[in-house]
Write a structure and sequence with these properties.
The chain is an alpha+beta fold. The chain has one domain: Clavaminate synthase-like (Double-stranded beta-helix, 4-Layer Sandwich), CATH 3.60.130.10. Helix 1 links the parallel strand 4 and strand 5. The longest helix has 15 residues. The protein is globular and about 50 Å long. The two termini are about 15 Å apart.
Length: about 325
């Protein structure tokens, strides 16, 4: 199901819901919705359709707390815990604090937690403390990146698998490690995970193909580290083309919902040493499927304490493939 117009309507107990594009390829602003209230099935279905179409949605989250953020995210499936290795917010096992003062500067392109077998299907980020300048989040559409590839490169990518791992520090690339960041790295890598995923993932609901790479993808199966890096860099360059990217300038009390199966994101570290704090809640996902129907497989690391495996039928995906 897709939305072809720039504006769509649904209802929450009679309240009009407007969905308006932010860019041509990714992102829409949703207005007329009170996230502190319960959502009816028609509204949830309209949000899911908009997410399929736009990949990332921005909501006004005035009055929303951690419990409300979790309630909203549960409309789209069972929640994961906060993270496989990084501690949750005290008293809230499903909430991950993304705090610049605690080492949480994810200034590297990535898709959330792809080093496990079933990464989250969707992520929600809610803004609590926003710097007066900078601190934007970039979100990229990996489906349009795939369609941008020249046909021979698309055909090649369809055959590739990549090993994703958490054993390197994606958040501090190219910078000296402070004591805080060194401790964050130690915690982040305290359990080693490696998982092989298809480089081209087929979305189970829409059948779209997207480049499933990003910062945790460290090598191509069957190739050397050097060969892998060159190929991954070429594919990644299509994901991060400006045409495929939403650059969101946060205000306080906003919530962004993005489809983790077909996007990447990057938190820009351009706000000096000012505080920036978001809370993240993620929805359990399915095992990725490639264009030939092959499913991802775990190489190392048990993430059963972090997430269940969502049972999402793959019929639409395989039919489109």
């Amino acid at each position: 199901m897709t939305i072809t117009a720039d504006e769509a309507t649904a209802s929450q107990t009679g309240v009009a819901l407007d969905i308006r594009k932010v860019t041509g390829r990714i992102g829409a602003r949703v207005s007329g919705l009170d996230l502190t209230e319960e959502l009816d099935q028609a509204t949830v279905a309209a949000i899911r359709a908009a997410l399929n179409a736009h990949k990332a949605l921005v909501f006004d989250a005035a009055g929303l707390d951690d419990e409300g953020q979790q309630r909203f995210a549960r409309h789209f499936g069972e929640l994961t815990t906060a993270h496989p290795t990084v501690p949750a917010l005290d008293g809230s096992p499903n909430v991950l604090p993304v705090d610049s003062e605690g080492g949480g500067r994810a200034n590297h392109w990535h898709t959330d937690v792809t080093f496990v077998l079933s990464p989250p299907q969707a992520s929600t980020l809610r803004s609590l403390v926003i710097p007066p300048y900078g601190g934007e989040t970039l979100i990229a559409n990996s489906a349009t990146a795939y369609t941008d590839l020249p046909e021979p490169l698309r055909a090649f990518a369809d055959t590739l698998w990549a090993v994703h791992t958490n054993v390197y520090d994606y958040a501090t690339q190219g910078r000296a490690l402070s004591d805080t960041h060194a401790e964050h790295r130690r915690i982040f890598t305290s359990i080693k995970y490696e998982t092989a995923h298809p480089v081209v993932r087929v979305h189970p609901l829409t059948g779209e193909r997207g480049l499933f790479v990003g910062g945790f993808a460290q090598r191509i199966v069957g190739l050397s580290a050097g060969e892998s890096r060159k190929i991954l860099d070429i594919l990644q360059s299509y994901v991060t083309r400006p045409e495929n990217v939403l650059r969101w300038r946060w205000s306080e009390n906003e919530l962004v919902l993005f489809d983790n199966r077909i996007t990447q994101h990057y938190a820009i570290d351009n706000y000096d040493d000012l505080p920036r704090r978001l809370h993240r809640v993620t929805v359990a996902g399915d095992i990725p499927v490639g264009v030939d129907g092959g499913r991802s497989h775990s190489i190392e690391g048990d993430a059963s304490h972090y997430t269940t495996v969502a049972d999402i039928p793959q019929a639409a995906a395989l039919a489109a493939a």
